[in-house]
Design brief:
The chain is of the alpha+beta class. The protein has a 4-stranded mixed sheet with strand order 1-2-4-3, with helices on one face. The chain has a 4-stranded mixed sheet with strand order 5-6-10-7, covered by helices on one side. The chain is globular. The two termini are 21 Å apart.
């Protein structure tokens, strides 16, 4: 089983994440932010990875530090678990509906970080969760993992549905990209 555990402790957050790919999609996520927990559960389930997240942060100040740092640590865990990326598919893409919403995601585990974020979220909050932090999470994840990620909204008007469709599309694309093909390093350069 390909697995990695990454810990990060700062003055603002304490985070421990274990990521096991080649798994069944089980999760145990505790961040103190229910909506983020729900989105990370979706990632585990739809990417078929096991994910354990224990995170605490200065939520009395703002949710930003915790959300961003969870993205950083999860990206590092993915980078660690993939190692030299030998035998992986490398690319993944998915289009996911959620009622009236439709979101496309395409990604490349290239080693080069780039986020093309195309969600236009109508509400500033889902319950107490600040929706601008979705972009911050993905940016932190992409930069830490070293990957290209494109997320495009194709339809939708409900903020919760749009975000959930984005995380499901992302997870399914990630599941494709990390799948073993057995064909060496998928690059003409010979390294990723």
């Amino acid at each position: 089983m390909r697995q990695a555990t990454v810990n990060r402790k700062t003055k603002e957050t304490t985070i421990s994440i274990t990521l096991a790919i080649d798994s069944e999609g089980a999760s145990r996520v505790e961040t103190g932010l229910g909506f983020l927990d729900h989105m990370l559960d979706l990632v585990a389930r739809h990417a078929a990875v096991n994910l354990t997240v224990q995170a605490k942060g200065d939520l009395h100040v703002d949710d930003h530090h915790l959300v961003e740092d969870v993205g950083i640590v999860l990206g590092q865990a993915l980078k660690d678990v993939l190692g030299k990326k030998e035998g992986i598919a490398r690319y993944g893409w998915s289009v996911a509906p959620m009622d009236e919403s439709l979101v496309m995601c395409a990604l490349d585990l290239s080693g080069r970080p780039y986020l093309a974020y195309g969600l236009e979220l109508p509400a500033k909050r889902v319950k107490q969760f600040d929706t601008e932090l979705i972009e911050e999470f993905f940016r932190a994840f992409v930069n830490s993992a070293g990957m290209n990620l494109h997320i495009r909204q194709m339809a939708g008007r409900n903020t919760h549905h749009l975000i959930e469709a984005a995380f499901k599309a992302f997870a399914r694309a990630l599941g494709q990209a990390i799948a073993i093909t057995g064909r060496g390093v998928p690059s003409t350069k010979g390294v990723l």
